[in-house]
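Exercise 7.
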Amino acid sequence: MQKTRILLAFGICSILLLGGNACHRSEARLLAFVPSDSAAILIIDWTSIKNDDDMKSLIKADGFEEQMRRFGIESSAVKELVVFGASNSSAGLLLRGAFDRRKVAEHLKSNGWSESSADGRKLYSSANDYISLPADGLLIAGTREGVSAALRASNNSRENIESAASFRKIKAAMTVGKSPITAYLIASEGTLDTADAALSLTAGAMSLFGYGEIGGILRKLNIAAGAGFTIAHGSSSRNCAVNLCVLMRDEQTASLAAGTLNLMKNLSAALPNTGDKENLQNFKVARQEKVVSVKMEMPRDALMPADAH
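Solution. The predicted structure, written as tokens, is:
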């Protein structure tokens, strides 16, 4: 299943295992299966976007739907999906929904997937792609390293992303409530460039950190430890509501970043009446210790994958 590897390796945003009794919970928390060393994570509330062409266009949803068909899973049966990628070759796609693992396994075997086992777990493989079906409604697909890492994370809370301090701080600052699209970038080597590159690898071209002056300032500070963002519908069909949270290295630099953004907003009042001025005037900046939060509306076109324009 070379296409799955291409989708995971080339990107999505653009392209599970629960241990013990937890495997049978109908509302499995997929974040518990994301490895702690993940640099980029994309979470999609599939239930809310599967019939929403505008949101689907932001994440190249046709790629996900193709993979679901290859797995023998109906798109309508999927509720949530998560994609993760690390700086090494570990990458995975996690699905939660209402599907029968026995039927999925039969579909895989009838389409040439080989059955094997690793660490006592049944796996299905095709070339360099692997799938685990730990319970009804749960599926892990990805590289062997990615599937293995997800299995370990599900069995040991210290090995999943929720054990990472940077992730917890960013998540705590995010807007309360579920958004159609949520992403996290965790920098492991000192700047957002590492995590942003991982997102480009695993999640396609969409990245808020290249957007206009706001993204430019945050990147030039070169001191962020990670970031997260949510995307939802904006006040008009042309815009998306975006909540961006950036974890800075310390409170001093967080204060500087927040102050710089607020200054830029205030100075923008003197600009001519343009779309850029409107965007600058409409964002709100807040700081909570080391986390800088920016709430704004962005043109939908600015979030579109490059090849979708």
